Amino acid sequence: MKKLVLSALLVCGIVGNSLAQLSFPPSGNNQKAEVSQHVGLVKIKVSYSSPNVTSPEGTDRTGKIWGELVHYGYADLGFGTSKNAPWRTGANENTIFETSHDIVVEGKTLPAGKYGFFVAVAKDKPWTVIFSKNSSSWGSYYYSQNEDALRVEIAPQANDFRQWLTYEFTERKPTETTLALMWEKIKLPIKITVPNINEYYISAFRDELRGGAGEIGENWTNAALFCVQNKMNLEEALTWADMAISGNYIGKRNYATLSAKGQVLNALGRKEEGEKLMKEAVMHPTATAMDIHQYGRTLLGAGKKNEALDIFKYNAEKNKSEWVIHIGLIRGYSAVGNYKKALECAETAQKVVTEDTNRKNVVRMIELLKQGKDVNTN
């Protein structure tokens, strides 16, 4: 009798944790699957059992999945406590959706955590996607709307035939992705975004700089520069930049650390302090010809043409053998309208610069200067 009961439970697919110590084949041969995707630091994962369009007995169920095998709306499944169960979006146990950080699903916030993942399928109208706080139950037999964490409405789309229920991340961008549920001839795309992703990076920096990463001065510099590039967390970035310069055991006063702090100060609107520190940085022995050149380009971008020319001249005096000094002089003289001098520098550069891309750029500059045009704006 006990064997008969066990066999019946296995066939019905409702034996769960009581057999956790034994490795039985999956009910209905619905193999387990997982898919995950990172959006920056955010990890999103879906764990599910994947049913087949063809039944375990070999019957082709094409055209009989939606509204038949998968019921429309909510139903009493005849087992468990739920009288209004949605589809469990898979077979056997709960389909589980996990996110390591807070995310936005179809415009609505979903906190970090593990969720039971359900869908109320509908005919000729959007489907209701449900994230339940209960992720440990078997299927949707115990689903309760009171445990919903989030609901969103999404219209399904026609899709190429899929024999097996599949989840796939079909769009992948720096701050967003699309999770697609695909089975038979239907696809349900779920847009997931991480609008505050840079805040997650900065939060990670805080933790990491308190550990082994904080023993490397360059990490403090890079954390500060990340804040400058993204125009956020600038006050804390200034403390990180100071640590890179003068922190016990790790602090160094060089071009990288001084220029990083100078950029933070400029971003904070403390221009006089920032420019003073940037000048100290480019005059430091550790500043390379390319470092100085890039600072000159930054000055040009800020409309400080004469200051930029002075920097390019300084670079040419300090680093006579570097090819990039000629490009700087061309740009500097052109910016202040001295096209004759800029052309002389360009003709010299044509003899010195050997790399193909930069040679082509010099040729382009010569043509512009002969036409009386500024190489920086054309």
Structural class: alpha+beta
Number of H/I helices: 11
Radius of gyration: 31 Å
Identify the overall geometry.
Answer: elongated
- Taking the alpha carbons of the first and last residues, their distance comes to 88 Å
Number of DSSP strands? Answer: 10
Q: How large a portion of the residues is in β-strands, by DSSP E? A: 15-25%
Please indicate the count of domains. 3
List the helices and strands and how they pair.
Elements: H1 2-12, E1 31-39, E2 42-50, E3 96-99, E4 103-105, E5 108-110, E6 113-120, E7 127-132, E8 148-154, E9 157-173, E10 176-193, H2 197-209, H3 217-230, H4 234-246, H5 255-267, H6 271-283, H7 289-301, H8 305-318, H9 324-335, H10 339-352, H11 356-370
Antiparallel strand pairs: 1-2, 2-3, 3-6, 4-5, 4-10, 6-7, 7-8, 9-10
Architecture overview:
- Mean pLDDT is 92; it is low at 1-16.
- The chain folds into 3 domains: 28-193, no CATH class; 196-287, Serine Threonine Protein Phosphatase 5, Tetratricopeptide repeat, CATH 1.25.40; 315-378, no CATH class.
- It contains 11 helices and 10 strands.
- It is of the alpha+beta class and 378 residues long.
- Strands 1-2-3-6-7-8 form a 6-stranded antiparallel sheet, with no helix packed on it. The protein has a 4-stranded antiparallel sheet with strand order 5-4-10-9, with no helix packed on it.
- β6 and β7 (127-132) form a beta hairpin.
- The radius of gyration is 31 Å and the shape is elongated.
- The chain has helices at 2-12, 197-209, 217-230, 234-246, 255-267, 271-283, 289-301, 305-318, 324-335, 339-352, 356-370, and strands at residues 31-39, 42-50, 96-99, 103-105, 108-110, 113-120, 127-132, 148-154, 157-173, 176-193.
